[in-house]
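ok so i was messing around last nite and threw this chain in just to see what happens. nothing serious, just curious
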Amino acid sequence: MADAIDVAVAVVTLRRGGVIAYPTESVWGLGCDPHNETAVARLFALKQRPAGLGVVLIGAELKHVAVYIEPLPAAAMKRVLSTWPGPHTWIFPRNSTVPSPISGEHAGIAVRVTAHPQAAALCRAFGGAIVSTSANRHGAAAARSAVEVRSIFGDELDFVLDGALGGLALPTTIRDAATGETLRP
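result:
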């Protein structure tokens, strides 16, 4: 389990435009500051991921992701909030503050308020949302350990925040926030 010093190093790395790896609910994630265009472009290059696909943003609290989304009717927000914090990613209509590489070619933005202790500690220390995309080359299986992350990326990453996964066997569920429709079970 990462300690406060490791989280602080990860945050400094993010603020300096670095790309890090960290454990999430189900797989290891790659992250960076969503407002640092150079870091986001580097993350996409590391994954060999087409830029138009976009990425998920995670936060530790609603306020971390709320700055990126358009408001929804009360019933839809109640449905979303009943799953957070937790392993549920929701697609919201995005607002104008969303950097275009984050949403890619999509009209929406994928966001999650995580309950994973380390990922949440990272977001709290960073003071906002960070990019969260699986630690893998595009189309390959996602890493499920720090050893696998290092095997895939070697010294291409700026920091690896050691820790344990949250125990989910599959990546988080993705649902449409407006309709509740499940897009990825």
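not much to say yet. The longest helix spans residues 4-15.
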